[in-house]
Amino acid sequence: MLQAIIRFALRERLMLLTAIVGVVVYGWLNIPKLPIDVFPDITRPRVAIITECPGVAPEEVEMLVTMPLEIALSGAPGVEAIRSTTDMGLSVIQVEFAWNQDVYRGRQVVQERIA
User: Has this prediction a pTM greater than 0.85?
Assistant: First the structure.
């Protein structure tokens, strides 16, 4: 069987070369249409809230800024996780949303809850 394929390929070189070029051109033209991403996004949609309180101790920033914001955001629709970091005069809150949530919708939800 293999010898027959090799004999056919050697006899019909031009036809085989044309078929190979056709397949390569077809593949090259369809590369932009592939639904596969080379570097897929492996993080959920995330909104970061950064607040500054110059000259305030970390415990006070946690009590006066971070905790009230976390409480306000905890019941928001689509929120999967809330992570926060508090430092001297600085609070950073990361709000992660569900995979199917649009990041712009997440920003809108966060703005509504903060207001």
Answer: no
* Cα torsion 69, 74, 80, 83: sign: positive
* Tokens, residue 84: 């926060």
CA distance 61 to 90: 7
Tens-digit pLDDT string for the chain (115 aa) = 889 888 988 898 999 999 999 999 999 999 888 877 777 777 888 999 999 988 888 888 888 888 888 888 888 888 888 998 888 889 999 999 888 888 888 889 888 888 8
Write the DSSP assignment of the chain as a string of letters.
-HHHHHHHHHHTHHHHHHHHHHHHHHHHHHGGG----SS---S--EEEEEEE-TT--HHHHIIIIIHHHHHHHTT-TTEEEEEEEEETTEEEEEEEE-TTS-HHHHHHHHHHHH-
Phi and psi at 41, nearest 5°, equal -80, 115
